[in-house]
Amino acid sequence: MNKILITLTFLFVNTIIFSQTPEGLKLRVGLRASIPISEFGTLYSFGIGGELHAEYGFNDKLSGIVTTGYSSFLGKSLDLGFGSVKLPAFGFIPALAGVRFYASDMFFIGGQVGYGLYSAEGESEGGLNYQPQIGINLEKFQLSLNYNSTKFKDADENFNHIGLTAVYKIGE
């Protein structure tokens, strides 16, 4: 499963890079820091990773955006009463698509939906993933604050985290 996902991500990235046109498709690459919340936050402490965005401006107020990347969440040490156990790092790969509305040249709001894949120690599971966001649009960078949630098919709890993403606008 992981080989297929890596291959699809590679093809996605190459398609974006080699299909850029001056009509509105823009590529962005950056870093993401995340804090797990709710039940996810009791098991994992912090996430760090990278993101790749492709954004197509339909007009000066509305754009479509696709996002992928990879983040690693650090496991906490859990006290089991008879000893403690350190949870392994947990990987996260999102595949999201959505829209952004630019309320002004410097401010945007948006939302994305797609699939989120989590993996640890050779095991992986994914589910419906969504991410609303607000952000600041600068000349060469974008900063966004977002809430990310993944709903697994047979789970009672979602994996939720709040992220701060800083991306560089390539070629702008």
Commentary on this structure:
With 172 residues, this protein is mainly beta. Helices cover 13% and strands 65% of the residues. It contains two helices and ten strands, in the order αβαβββββββββ. The chain has helices at residues 2-18, 38-43; strands spanning 25-37, 44-57, 62-75, 77-79, 84-86, 90-102, 107-120, 123-137, 141-152, 159-169. The strands form two sheets. The protein has an eight-stranded antiparallel beta barrel with strand order 1-2-3-6-7-8-9-10. It has a two-stranded antiparallel sheet with strand order 4-5. β6 and β7 form a beta hairpin. The radius of gyration is 17 Å and the shape is elongated. The protein starts with a helix and ends with a strand.
Count of individual beta strands: 10
Strand order of the largest sheet: 1-2-3-6-7-8-9-10
Average pLDDT over all residues: 87
Summarize the helix and strand pattern as letters. Answer: HEHEEEEEEEEE
**Count of alpha and pi helical runs:** 2
Low-pLDDT stretches are: 14-22
Helix content: 10-25%
Overall structural class, as computed from helix and strand content, comes to mainly beta
% residues in beta strands: over 45%
Report the end-to-end length measured between terminal Cα atoms.
Answer: 36 Å
Oligomerization state:
single chain
Give a quick account of the main beta sheet: strands, pairing sense, barrel closure: 8 strands, antiparallel, barrel
Radius of gyration in whole Å, from Cα? 17 Å
| Mass-distribution shape | elongated
